[in-house]
Amino acid sequence: MLARLAQVVGAGQVTDDPDVLAGRSVDHTGRYSGRATALVRPGTADEVAAVLRVCRESGTHVTVQGGRTSLVAGTVPEHDDVLLSTERLNNVGAVDATERRVSAGAGATLAAVQQAAASAGLLFGVDLTARDTATVGGMASTNAGGLHTVHYGNMGEQILGLEVALPDGTLLHRHTAVRADNTGYDLPALFVGAEGTLGVITSVDLRLRPSPAYRATAVCGFTDLDALIGVARGFRDLDGIAALELIDARVTALTGERLGVPAPVAGDWLLLVELTGDTDQTDRLAARLEQVPGLSEPAVGVDAATSGRLWRVREAVAEVLGAFGPPLKFDVALPLAAVARFAAEAAVLVGRHAPDALPVLFGHIGEGNLHLNVLRCPADAEPRLYAAMMELIADCGGNVSSEHGVGSRKRAYLSMSRGPGDIAAMRVVKAAFDPTGYLNAAVLFD
After folding, report:
1. H or E segment at 108?
2. In terms of DSSP H, where are the helices of 192-303?
3. How far is CA 444 from the centre of its chain?
4. CB contact at 8 A, 193 and 143
């Protein structure tokens, strides 16, 4: 099989080196690991399709890897898999400034797409703190959201077309010059969020947006989480809202201590708010904040430099999480009315199962897409805590996954968010595209 793969992509793009495979078989957090037979790096969509044909014919499982920033062990192999990396599919095409679109290979990083858009005076609507390593193919596969979801929506809302290598080794091309393509099935929507279980996305056509002329940013401190949520609910549907980010003061204490990035205001919970528009938004933001009863003086960024310093408070969170070893991560979607209850009861669960651990909560509060990270959580406490946390999420009316996908870590809990009929229908779709089940077999389904 390795010889056949080498014929497809070239001998230099296939390896079975144990050290290379060991490094590629560990997840982003370093908490979960698997095993692989080989790593293959195709350089074109045709090569991806040919690699899939070889692996399917030889009965070999394939795990697809992009930037490997998955936080649910979505790129960790379990079956002595061939690791199919999209890293060489990293081209970013010329920006069409008139139609506000750009084509990019699945292995192109988010940062590369953002830079291309900015060079044309445009922006790409999805932004993540992992922008330098996250790839647009992986982001499409998980329907990633990010820091500006409240304004631009998730990854699926940015995709105008795509190319996919199907499990049978054929290529599906859905590229169109029109914006409203309502002919036949909406196949791109089927592959976005499928986590690589139905095919390997090889390229995407992405929607770009006008870059706003003005930004106004503020960070506000709250003692009561319900009060913060009430304010976020009021901002959520405001014209020009660009970001609504919740930050736990327990984590800003760490960023202050270790990175020199302290909270700019006092409070147990922080809310970062940003408004954008064609005119100066500073007065509008200030007037809105003045309507919040009992709110202490917020920190306001009125220019790029001061706004950047406030955003640094949010960006630093990702940098400090690994300071105490691999964190235990929970990526959840919750109704806003249940967020305060979840935060309180999650802290109780952590205290019960891992008394020395530290829970910190942050995320995109406008959409209820939140990230609970448990620092200093010992490995032997994880199974019981994970199960208990999943039950709490379901009891709060939330989904066990919001924007990171189900991966392999949450597949046992899929039934908490999807009914039997829903799961059965998804299995039918999977079987139609991949009847032997060799592609991303560890992901989504038990």
Report:
1. none
2. 225-236, 249-259, 282-290
3. 16
4. yes
Query: pLDDT at position 79, please?
Result: 86
C-alpha span between 232 and 92 (Å, rounded)? 36
Average pLDDT by consecutive 10-residue portion of the chain (446 residues)?
A: 95 95 84 90 97 97 86 79 96 96 97 97 93 93 90 94 96 85 86 95 97 93 95 92 96 95 95 94 91 87 89 92 86 93 97 96 93 93 93 92 79 87 94 96 87
Determine the Cα–Cα distance for residues 234 and 255; give it in Å rounded to an integer: 29
Tokens of 163: 């190319």
Under DSSP, is residue 211 helix (H, G, I), strand (E, B) or coil?
coil
- The tokens describing 159, both together, are 């995709």
Spatial distance between the Cα atoms of 59 and 37, rounded to a whole number of angstroms? 13
Q: How wide is the angle at C-alpha 403 spanned by C-alphas 388 and 349, nearest 5°?
A: 20
Place of tokens 């070999």: 60
370-413 tens-digit pLDDT: 999 999 999 899 999 999 999 999 999 998 777 777 888 888 88
Phi/psi-derived region of residue 153, left when phi > 0, alpha when psi is between -120 and 50, beta in every other case? left
340 to 69, 110, 225, 230: CA distances (angstroms): 28, 32, 6, 11
Q: Which domains does the chain have, with CATH numbers?
A: 2-85 (3.30.43.10), 101-210 (3.30.465.10), 214-320 (3.30.70.2190), 328-404 (3.30.70.2740)
* Residues in Cβ contact with 330 at an 8 Å cutoff, skipping those fewer than 6 apart: 346, 371, 372, 373, 374, 389, 393
**Residues 179 and 188 sit within 8 Å (Cβ to Cβ):** no
Please give the angle made by the CA atoms of 173, 201 and 319, to the nearest 5 degrees. 150
Residue 134 to residue 165: CA distance in whole angstroms = 20
Decide: 72 and 192 in contact? Cβ < 8 Å: no
Host H or E run for residue 114? helix 110-119
* Amino acid symbol at 21: L
